[in-house]
Design goal:
By secondary structure, the chain is α+β, with helices and mostly antiparallel strands. It has a domain at 175-253: Alpha-Beta Plaits (2-Layer Sandwich), CATH 3.30.70.1070. The chain has helices at 3-6, 22-52, 89-95, 184-197, 199-202, 232-244, and strands at residues 174-181, 207-214, 220-227, 250-253. The N and C termini lie far apart (141 Å).
């Protein structure tokens, strides 16, 4: 049996064989791989340094904040604003002589307590001390005293009481508010004090009207008001008389 029949895959014997050194081939490939790896590592280091360089600063330097790259103002989609239908309808109705259907409720005024002035104490002048008689060494000659006429006591004249115009009584809705306190007992005490101090004004059929008011955050108040007046003019006359004598007040409705 010939060699060709025994190994058909083998080349013919007349082909020349090329020498091959394994050490030479492996050394060149290793160097190439080494330099390629170093280049990749160097490129990665440069990329990392480029990315983190803006955020690196010294401890003494202030931080640098970069603004967003977005527009500060943006034009609205609808130039001129959104149109509200029937916005000026009430104004045109009033100009045409029509009564608007909207009801406006004014906000309540802030409640402020009214302080009642206490009566001032009456001051009496101090008594004059008698002066001591001068001391003399010589005894004066005593002469009989001349008869003095008997002095008659003059009656002490007291000024007439101040006249106050009569306040017309009635059952109108106008009242005069004189105080706003925290409890109902204090409101009644205010009326007792007012009635005693200004009896010439309140003894004409007037009476106290205490009203409880809830002011939410400020709390609950009790308003002392004087009722029983004929109309607004009578209430204004009574309040002016109170103010003239040092008592704060104002006219309102029940």
């Amino acid at each position: 049996m010939s060699d060709t029949e025994f190994s058909p895959d083998m080349q013919p014997a007349n082909d020349e064989l090329t020498p091959f050194d394994v050490r030479d081939s492996s050394g060149r490939q290793g160097l190439v791989k080494f330099f390629v790896g170093c280049g990749i590592l160097l490129l990665a280091a440069l990329l990392v340094l480029k990315l983190y360089q803006p955020g690196v600063r010294d401890r003494g330097d202030p931080p640098k904040i970069t603004a967003e790259n977005t527009p500060f103002k943006v034009s609205p989609e609808e130039v001129g604003g959104t149109q509200t239908p029937n916005q000026d309808k009430t104004v045109f109705d009033v100009m045409d002589g029509k009564t608007p259907e909207d009801v406006v409720n004014p906000a309540k005024a802030a409640e402020e307590p009214i302080t009642i002035l206490a009566p001032e104490p009456i001051q009496t002048p101090p008594k004059a001390e008698p002066k001591p008689a001068p001391v003399t060494t010589q005894q004066p000659i005593k002469t009989p005293p001349k008869p003095q006429p008997i002095a008659r006591e003059q009656p002490v004249k007291t000024p007439p009481p101040a006249t106050t115009s009569t306040v017309r009584a009635g059952n109108s809705e106008y009242v005069v508010q004189v105080a706003s306190v925290r409890s109902q007992d204090d409101a009644q005490k205010v009326w007792t004090t007012i009635n005693a101090k200004f009896n010439d004004l309140t003894n004409q059929g007037l009476y106290a009207d205490v009203r409880r008011v809830d002011l939410e955050e400020k709390g609950i108040y009790f308003r002392t008001r004087i009722a029983g007046l004929a109309d607004k003019a009578a209430a204004t006359q009574l309040c002016n008389s109170f103010k003239a004598r040092g008592q704060a007040c104002f006219v309102t409705r029940k």
